[in-house]
Design a protein that fits this description.
- The longest helix has 18 residues, at 41-58.
- Helix 1 crosses helix 2 (41-58), helix 8 crosses helix 10 and helix 8 (193-209) packs across helix 11.
- With 293 residues, this protein is of the alpha/beta class.
- The chain has 12 helices and 8 strands.
- It has an 8-stranded mixed sheet with strand order 3-2-1-4-5-6-7-8, sandwiched between helices.
- It folds into 2 domains: 3-186, Rossmann fold; 193-270, N-(1-d-carboxylethyl)-l-norvaline Dehydrogenase, domain 2 (Orthogonal Bundle), CATH 1.10.1040.
């Protein structure tokens, strides 16, 4: 299927990444079915989209009419089969647990039309293993979006060994329709961005652990010295410490000890200090998402 022919998009998972993907899909003109297994989560995701779109109107990035039109194209679903019926594309954005993703795609394989492009938003897990859960693995690819999705321009399109070239082309075209810049990478552990970004993030954590400098000063060094728009520790808070821990554990096993998580990261996750979403990580955050310390 050509990307221009994708009119109906189902997004599975209404959390940070899922509602962001639904946001950009609706702005691009697609009808969007936003599904989450937790009752009420999809509706809550749409409320977050509405707030982000309202901010876009306030900043002059979109018109009020475009905001209303985009919201009118999104529907919340609490049942997977109903959300996938008639979809031209299904994008999964659930937590980074491979068995969970495989289970979801087994269900999607039964519910979605045979022509639908299937994509997983995983940031590091092997696409080939996820694709093996559907009857036609070639139609499933990786589409790794970045947080916040409605702001960040990059999408990694990940090809595994049996991916259909037409599926890769459709995913690249869809990312472009969303106003993103796609890059195409092979199905290697951590792909390109997660592997590079995590090395910096883990070393920044070790530097805090060793007392080299404060989190704020390390982040300032990377922003002013290297031109990064956000420091590695603030980015960790935004992504979620639990998410970064899971990726680090996987890459340490797949690649080597350079990705071994620092003890401070394990301790913070164990204490429920997960970053912005919990109110505290390497920084403290207010309930409205602003950094307060």
């Amino acid at each position: 299927m050509n990307a221009s022919e994708i009119r109906s998009i189902t997004v599975i998972g209404a959390g940070t990444m899922g509602h962001g993907i639904a946001h950009v899909a609706a702005i691009a003109g697609a009808t969007v079915q936003l599904y989450d297994a937790v009752a009420g989560a999809a509706a809550a995701g749409i409320e977050k989209i509405a707030k982000n779109l309202a901010k876009g109107v306030e900043l002059g990035k979109i018109s009020a009419a475009d905001r209303e039109a985009a919201l009118g194209r999104i529907r919340a679903f609490d049942e997977l089969a109903a959300a996938c019926a008639g979809a031209d594309c299904v994008i999964e954005a659930v937590p980074e647990r491979i068995e969970l993703k495989r289970e979801i795609f087994r269900a999607v394989d039964q519910a979605a039309p045979a022509h639908a492009l299937l994509a997983t938003n995983t940031s590091s897990l092997p696409i080939a293993e996820i694709a093996a859960s559907v009857r036609a693995p070639g139609r499933l690819v990786g589409m790794h979006f970045f947080n916040p999705v409605h702001v960040m321009k990059l999408v990694e399109v990940v090809r595994h060994a049996s991916a259909d070239p037409a599926s890769i082309a459709a995913a690249v075209g869809l990312a472009e329709r969303f106003g993103k810049t796609p890059i195409t990478v092979s199905d290697a552990p951590g792909f390109a961005s997660s592997r590079l970004g995590l090395v910096i993030g883990l070393e920044a954590m070790r530097m805090v652990e060793q007392g080299v400098a404060s989190a704020a000063d390390i982040d300032t060094a990377m922003k002013l010295g290297y031109g990064h728009p956000m420091g590695p520790l603030e980015l960790t808070d935004l992504v979620g410490l639990d998410v970064r821990l899971g990726i680090a554990e996987y890459l340490a096993q797949a690649i080597g000890p350079a990705f071994t998580p620092p003890q401070t990261l394990r301790d913070k996750v164990a204490a429920g200090k997960l970053g912005k979403k919990s109110g505290e990580g390497y920084y403290r955050w207010s309930p409205d998402g602003k950094r307060v310390g």
